[in-house]
Amino acid sequence: MQDTKFDGLMLKNLMEAGHTWLKTNHQTVNALNVFPVPDGDTGTNMLLTMNSAIAEVNASGQNGAGAVAAAFAQGALMGARGNSGVILSQVLRGMVATLRAVGGGVAGASDVAAALKAASAASYEAVLKP
């Protein structure tokens, strides 16, 4: 069985799909908000953070998986809004450390799985009491 490869374009397309989902559903996420207090803006803050992240990737012109992930994480960090935006930026930061190490700018499924595991760990570290 051949390992699926993720290059920067595929990663960018996946992130844009997530961004589109959040644009469509941010009000639903707002209604679910309970952390740290139910202030009703979690979805909006995540959307604003994603807007910044997508803009950074588009401006970077990068093509490798690690470089795209790094631009996405940088944009999210610099544009993070509220607690949910900061946590989202830390999820992306966790992914970057793994994807940057991928040779040739193309990640395999096992690299992506490791990146998601690192993202999960980073998100829990970003919250005092998850």
* Class per helix and strand makeup: mainly alpha
Name the strands of the widest sheet in spatial order.
Answer: 1-2
- The helix tally amounts to 5
Order of helices and strands: EHHHHEH
Instruction: Give the overall shape.
Output: globular
Largest sheet report? 2 strands, antiparallel
Task: Tell me roughly what share of residues is in helical segments.
Answer: over 70%
Q: What value does the average pLDDT take?
A: 85
Radius of gyration: 15 Å
Low-confidence stretches: none
Describe this structure as you would to a colleague.
The protein is mostly helical and 130 residues long. Helix content is 72%, strand content 3%. It has helices spanning 8-32, 42-60, 65-78, 82-100, 109-125; strands at 5-6, 107-108. Helix 1 (8-32) packs antiparallel against helix 2 (42-60). The protein is globular. The relative contact order is 0.16.
Features:
single chain, 130 residues, mainly alpha, 2 strands, globular
Write the layout of secondary structure elements.
Elements: E1 5-6, H1 8-32, H2 42-60, H3 65-78, H4 82-100, E2 107-108, H5 109-125
Antiparallel strand pairs: 1-2
Q: What's this, in brief?
A:
The chain is mainly α. Helices cover about 70% and strands about 5% of the residues. The chain has helices at about 10-30, 40-60, 65-80, 80-100, 110-125; strands at about 5, 105-110.
